[in-house]
């Protein structure tokens, strides 16, 4: 049984004076215990909204969330907010893009880590602080005993993100959701954080949902990757399949459009025409059709379904990139 | 670009794509200001505020037509019933009854709108003009002039605004409505000056000003075309909110007896402060109506100001 | 090297750290750019790569005299740019233009595209054939003429960046300094802009200084790459050479940190993880600035600062005392303990903010 089973999750923003916007449009995916799943897409594809909806962190006013988010067979969307708070932090941890705004600026680090332990595991302040020291040490923060008294602004971006990871992992959650955890960091620091995340996830058996726009980050980390476009999953595959033989023209185009460090230069980059806002509504066909090089008549006029592939993934495309047939 | 793509489609499917895309994309050529204006019109709060202000403005402008009587004329049918402990209420021809001197109270309220709005608007505009001038000089020129202007405004801001106004009025040998206007205007100068200077400085560091410098655009053009227009929005919002404060301040000065001593002049603050207080036991309406009118006008300006602020905030776009 | 268009000679940009309430006292300096010498050949692309706070943006702005250099020389096509001032500097700006990272904030939201583009022409008295120029410029960046009466907020990110490029191009510059031209854009849009820059260089013979943190992008578009760390160049090489044979330990770390979208490569890669964070540019380490994080650092690195020197006949330059020994494997890496770096307002200044700009309205 999967640890997290997201079924047909939709989020509609209803703001005063504007047309309703479907940010997430029937997204389904599962996360097995200990598995690392990637949600990849560009701005506006709904990846962050998906994670916020899973955690119940979207404001209830003005947002309509439908579908099911089954964690351990409990539908998180049906829980009362106060019950959901018991799950958050204890069973599900979360890391955000901006570690500075995710930490309380007026509380020392030690207290912030300890609070989670006090809240969810009933530790005393003393015991919690001792444990916090160990956690900061585990995420590679130098001289953890002294750091307990530091305030967030006294730490660098990378150290703050480490502290956030320590807080997220304090109660040994079974699921960790990381929303662009390295986007605000420099590459060398990103490498540190990704390596740390990978080690922690491997050691503790925590399942990880990694949300990012960076295909490179996903390539080294995730078991299964979901590619999102305009609020829907367009392709799901095991990472080796996805990167070696992408089937959806969008995935294919993305992979070809990023310059790679290890490939000869001089090749002109493949470009996807238009912009993310040039899409058509999903009920009218494939949202990507206006930008797609492989568009055919079947792409427009009817709903393109997400169909399972023989490799255990899924694909939403009427004219996918053909698999290479060995000669 | 590769072959295939859209060209591989049949004509009607291609047209369908164009049609669907054009449906989502907006029509072009809408400036930020017009865009904000559209949102403002759609905001009920703004409309309520604007309607209130408009209503009072119409009343103020057309006071002689709207008012049933001359506001300074004393009516025998009212004066004959006047005693120390009874002021006549509504009678035929006098819907709100009499004031303590036997004048038509309704007409005085209507002419009061004229006087009160005149003082509030003029005080704000004068304060705005001087404040913007000082702020723009401080923000654009910088250096010792900036330091001088800012220290000056600091001193003015350090005094409570009403106290400052009282001092200014007291300094004038003879109080007229102009001393009130000037006093309230002066109180608002440092607020506008600081606000404009602050956003001018922020603009100075902004990327688009840097871009203009990189283009080799002349200094005065940068200040006038980029820094000033982009800084003014905050000031405009503040000005709308200041109308309300200015009206209250002017009323307060009149209430304290520092306003125009002319007893014939109908002004809400004066009506509230003098007659309203003195005859509160006898006829509380004399206080209620001017107070209500002041609150309502102030509310109108506040609602409109807040909505303009909201509409101009780029975060609220679309 | 061939025909040099721009050269920097030991360029320094130091920002004073001011403190005090009434009277500003200078309590220290942020050494944002601390002695950089490089030259850019005409028609070529020089890529400047480094992490936030390394001074690469300040270097670009210093070159354009948008921030005032503290010391050093800038020579543009034989002209001493630092000697120019006032009206002559303003007119000279026509020859060197800039493209910004964030196309939204670098375009005045109140101006239509037409007035944004015409502004530069007016400033240089070129409005005579303005409309023809605008059309051809818009065409060259792939925007329709109908864009002229629209406003920046009505475009997508990629189109806005095209407007930013058009604004720089309309004056017919020789050099374009592009500061993170694609990092604010969506992945699928980045390729469009990179290709556009490529095409424009080919058709107009432009010279680029491209500043970015993304080594993969830099490597793709540059002929020569300079790697910056804490205000100084640590290595400079041809784009292929740098990848094939990185000499400086920091370059190695940078190369190994860039994720590659290929699981097979990622699984087999050996990561060289750097310990700790970038030190504050207000208080740089003595000697070699990289030594606090370098796994090959020796005693000598703390006492003497390595000069950027030509390594061999390939022209590759490196600022490391032990480049030869590290390359040959003679020197073995050791463990490095992370030093805690306190982020202070100073380093933020160097990273994001460019302090008061001297040639702006100040008397």
From TrEMBL, chain A:
Q: What is this protein called?
A: ABC transporter ATP-binding protein
Keywords of the record: ATP-binding, Cell membrane, Membrane, Nucleotide-binding, Transport
Q: Where in the cell is it found?
A: Cell membrane
Q: Which PANTHER family match?
A: DIPEPTIDE TRANSPORT ATP-BINDING PROTEIN DPPD (PTHR43297:SF2), OLIGOPEPTIDE TRANSPORT ATP-BINDING PROTEIN APPD (PTHR43297)
Q: Which Pfam families match?
A: ABC_tran, oligo_HPY
What membrane topology does this protein have?
Peripheral membrane protein
Record-level Gene Ontology MF annotations: ATP binding
Q: Is ATP-binding set as a keyword in this record?
A: yes
**Protein family membership:** Belongs to the ABC transporter superfamily.
Q: Which organism is it from?
A: Paractinoplanes lichenicola
The cross-references to InterPro entries, in alphabetical order and at most eight, read: AAA+_ATPase, ABC_Ni/Peptide_Import, ABC_transporter-like_ATP-bd, ABC_transporter-like_CS, Oligopep_ABC_C, P-loop_NTPase
UniProtKB/TrEMBL annotation, chain C:
Q: Which Pfam families match?
A: ABC_tran (PF00005), oligo_HPY (PF08352)
Q: Which CDD domains match?
A: ABC_NikE_OppD_transporters
PROSITE patterns given in the database record:
ABC_TRANSPORTER_1, ABC_TRANSPORTER_2
Q: Tell me which domain of life the UniProt entry assigns to the organism this sequence originates from.
A: Bacteria
The residues that cross the membrane are: none
Question: Which residues lie within the region annotated Disordered?
Answer: 341-363
Q: Which UniProt keywords apply?
A: ATP-binding, Nucleotide-binding, Transport
Q: Which InterPro entries match?
A: AAA+_ATPase, ABC_transp_ATP-bind, ABC_transporter-like_ATP-bd, ABC_transporter-like_CS, Oligopep_ABC_C, P-loop_NTPase
Using the record's annotation, list all stretches that form the ABC transporter domain.
17-255
**Any one GO molecular function term:** ATP binding
Entry similarity comment:
Belongs to the ABC transporter superfamily.
Cross-referenced NCBIfam families: oligo_HPY
Q: What is this protein called?
A: ATP-binding cassette domain-containing protein
Organism of origin is Paractinoplanes lichenicola
């Amino acid at each position: 049984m999967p640890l997290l089973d997201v079924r047909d999750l939709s989020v509609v923003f209803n703001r005063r004076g504007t047309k309703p916007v479907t940010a997430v449009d029937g997204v389904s995916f599962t996360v097995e215990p200990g598995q690392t799943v990637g949600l990849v897409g560009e701005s506006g594809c709904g990846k962050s909204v998906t994670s916020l909806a899973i955690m119940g962190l979207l404001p209830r006013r003005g947002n309509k969330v439908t579908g099911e988010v089954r964690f351990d067979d409990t539908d998180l969307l049906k829980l009362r907010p106060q019950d959901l708070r018991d799950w958050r932090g204890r069973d599900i941890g979360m890391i955000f893009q901006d570690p500075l705004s995710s930490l309380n600026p007026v509380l020392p680090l030690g207290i912030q880590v300890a609070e989670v332990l006090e809240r969810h595991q009933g530790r005393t302040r003393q015991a919690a602080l001792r444990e916090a020291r160990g956690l900061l040490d585990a995420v590679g923060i130098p001289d953890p005993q002294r750091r307990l008294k530091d305030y967030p602004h006294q730490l660098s971006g990378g150290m703050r993100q480490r502290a956030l990871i320590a807080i997220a992992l304090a109660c040994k959650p079974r699921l960790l959701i990381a929303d662009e955890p390295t986007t605000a960091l420099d590459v060398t620091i990103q490498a540190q954080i990704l390596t740390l995340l990978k080690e922690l996830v491997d050691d503790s058996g925590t399942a990880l949902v990694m949300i990012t726009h960076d295909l490179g980050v996903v390539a080294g980390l995730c078991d299964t990757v979901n590619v999102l476009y305009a609020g829907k999953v367009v392709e799901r595959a095991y990472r080796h399949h996805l990167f070696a033989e992408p089937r959806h023209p969008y995935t294919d185009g993305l992979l070809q459009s990023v310059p790679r460090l290890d490939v000869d230069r001089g090749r002109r980059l493949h470009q996807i025409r238009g912009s993310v806002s040039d899409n058509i509504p999903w009920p009218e066909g494939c949202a990507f059709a206006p930008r797609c090089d492989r568009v055919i008549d079947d792409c427009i006029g009817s709903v393109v379904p997400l169909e399972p592939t023989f490799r255990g993934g899924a694909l939403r495309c009427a004219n996918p990139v053909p698999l290479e047939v060995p000669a | 670009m590769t072959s295939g793509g859209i060209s591989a489609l049949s004509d009607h499917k291609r047209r369908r794509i164009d049609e669907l895309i054009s449906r989502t994309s907006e029509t072009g050529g809408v400036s930020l200001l017009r865009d904000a204006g559209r949102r403002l019109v759609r905001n009920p709060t703004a409309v309520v505020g604007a309607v209130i202000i408009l209503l009072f403005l119409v009343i103020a402008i057309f006071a002689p037509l709207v008012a049933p009587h001359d506001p300074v004329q004393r009516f025998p049918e009212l004066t004959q019933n006047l005693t120390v402990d009874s002021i006549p209420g509504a009678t035929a021809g006098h819907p709100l009854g009499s004031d303590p001197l036997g004048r038509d109270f309704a007409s005085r309220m209507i002419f009061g709108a004229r006087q009160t709005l005149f003082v509030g608007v003029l005080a704000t505009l004068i304060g705005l003009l001087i404040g913007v001038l000082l702020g723009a000089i401080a923000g654009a020129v910088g250096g010792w002039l900036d330091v001088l202007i800012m220290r000056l405004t600091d001193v003015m801001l350090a005094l409570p605004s009403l106290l400052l106004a009282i001092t200014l009025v007291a300094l004038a040998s003879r109080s007229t409505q102009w001393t009130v206007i000037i006093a309230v205007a002066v109180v608002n100068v440092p607020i506008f000056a600081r606000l404009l200077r602050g956003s001018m400085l922020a603009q100075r560091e902004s990327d688009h000003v840097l871009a203009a410098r990189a283009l080799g655009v002349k200094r005065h053009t940068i200040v006038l075309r980029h820094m000033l227009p982009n800084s003014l929005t905050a000031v405009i919002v503040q000005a709308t909110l200041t109308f309300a404060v200015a009206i209250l301040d002017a009323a307060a000065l009149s209430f304290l007896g520092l306003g125009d001593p002319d007893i014939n002049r109908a002004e809400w603050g004066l009506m509230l402060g003098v007659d309203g207080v003195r005859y509160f036991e006898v006829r509380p309406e004399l206080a209620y109506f001017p107070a209500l009118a002041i609150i309502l006008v102030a509310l109108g300006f506040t609602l409109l100001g807040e909505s303009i602020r909201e509409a101009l905030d780029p975060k609220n776009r679309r | 090297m061939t025909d040099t268009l721009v050269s920097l000679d030991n360029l320094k940009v130091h920002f004073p750290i001011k403190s005090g309430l009434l009277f500003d006292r200078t309590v220290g300096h942020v050494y944002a750019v601390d002695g950089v010498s490089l030259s850019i050949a005409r028609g070529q692309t020089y890529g400047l790569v480094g992490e936030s706070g390394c001074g690469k943006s300040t270097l670009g702005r210093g070159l354009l005299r948008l921030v005032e250099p503290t010391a050093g020389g800038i020579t543009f096509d034989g002209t001493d740019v630092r000697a120019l001032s006032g009206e002559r500097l303003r007119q000279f700006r026509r020859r060197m233009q800039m493209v910004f990272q964030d196309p939204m904030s670098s375009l005045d939201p109140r101006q239509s595209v037409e007035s944004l583009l015409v502004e530069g022409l007016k400033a240089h008295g070129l409005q005579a054939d303005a409309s023809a120029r605008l059309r051809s410029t818009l065409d060259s960046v792939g925007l329709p003429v109908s864009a002229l009466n629209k406003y920046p907020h009505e475009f997508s990110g990629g189109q806005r960046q095209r407007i930013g490029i058009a604004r720089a191009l309309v004056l017919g510059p020789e050099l374009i300094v592009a500061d993170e031209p694609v990092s604010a854009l969506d992945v699928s849009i980045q390729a469009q802009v990179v290709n556009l820059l490529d095409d424009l260089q080919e058709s107009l013979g432009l010279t680029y200084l491209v500043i970015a943190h993304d080594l993969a992008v830099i490597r793709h578009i540059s002929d020569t790459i300079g790697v910056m760390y804490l205000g100084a160049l640590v290595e400079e090489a041809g784009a292929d050479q740098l990848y094939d044979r990185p000499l400086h330990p920091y370059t190695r770390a940078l190369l190994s940190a860039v994720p590659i979208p290929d699981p097979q490569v990622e699984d087999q890669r050996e990561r060289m993880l750097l310990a700790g964070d970038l030190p504050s540019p207000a208080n740089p380490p003595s000697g070699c600035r990289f030594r606090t994080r370098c796994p090959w650092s020796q005693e000598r690195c703390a006492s003497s600062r390595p000069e950027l020197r030509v390594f061999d006949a390939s022209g590759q330059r490196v600022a490391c005392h032990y480049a030869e020994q590290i390359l040959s494997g003679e020197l073995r890496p050791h463990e490095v303990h992370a030093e805690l770096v306190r982020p202070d307002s100073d380093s933020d200044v160097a990273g994001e903010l460019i302090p008061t700009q001297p040639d702006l309205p100040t008397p």
